[in-house]
Amino acid sequence: MKYSLTPVGHIESPYKEKFAVPRQPGLAPSALASVILEGEACNEDTVRGIEQFSHLWILFLFDQNLEQGWTPTVRPPRLGGNERIGVFASRATFRPNGIGMSVVPLKGVRKEGGKIIIDIGSCDLVDGTPVIDIKPYIPYSDSIEEAAGGYAAEAPQTLDIQFGAQPLAFLAKDKDGQNKQQVIGEVLAQDPRPAYKKGKADTKEYAVHLFDLNVKFTVAEPVITVTAIEAFGE
Q: TsaA-like domain: which residues (predicted)?
């Protein structure tokens, strides 16, 4: 049997492309986002009582990956990108039905221009991601102290971040520059490069689209240097 899903909304976030999005929620706590409710779900009744909860489960579609299909095994970055494991033993984005889930802090609910907007924190979702459901996080059932984390038992190691003179001067002129600098640092500290690049000499300059910015950086482990920031598209 086949079933169809209608998104209840979409994500607005600083992440304008897949590259550099944190691999799990909670790794970039300063990255704030919103769920913009749509259609029949855009109704004040759908969020009645939601602010009793500190966190929410966001169920969404990996919409940018759906056309590429999936395979039974994947290579998790946490295993260096070399070892294969079953797709159901991973949180890989290429899945049979392309469904993902993230637990995020609830920051508030507001109505703006006829839209119902749920503000969230520490998001790991690309801007425009379709949201298919929202559920409250229930601590007594969703938090399991004795749970085993397998190959992802510990949080990933991070690299040190330094900003060059031009990026600091650019951000100093932005009214939201302090928050943007914090988000850029938290995102890049995760080292978004492909797993096979890590632990090796790397002379490439990378670029990532965050907010409305094109952020360029280099990596000389254990330091990532933000070399330049410019308005995206310039």
A: 5-146
| Boundaries of every domain in the chain | 9-142, 160-231
Options 3.40.1130, 3.30.2310, 2.40.128, 3.90.320; CATH for 160-231 is: 3.30.2310
Q: Which tokens belong to 218?
A: 């280099």
Neighbours of 163 (CB within 10 A): 19
Residue 104, SS3 per DSSP: strand
pLDDT in tens, 42-96: 999 999 999 999 999 999 999 988 888 999 999 988 888 889 999 999 999 999 9
Handedness of CA 172, 216, 195, 20 (dihedral sign): positive
The architecture of the domain spanning 9-142 is Beta Barrel (2.40)
- Residue pair 83/74 in contact by the 8 Å Cβ criterion: no
Q: Which of 208, 212, 220 is CA-nearest to residue 170?
A: 212
- From residue 94, give the alpha-carbon distance in Å to each of 2, 65, 68, 227: 19, 6, 8, 32
Tokens of 155: 């949080």
Q: Which residues pair with 214 in a beta bridge?
A: 209, 230
| Sign of the alpha-carbon torsion through 134, 138, 139, 145 | negative
Q: Find the farthest-apart pair of alpha carbons in the chain and give their distance in angstroms, rounded.
A: 58
3 state DSSP class of 122? coil
Tokens of 162: 């330094």
Q: Left, alpha or beta for 80 (phi > 0: left; psi -120 to 50: alpha)?
A: left
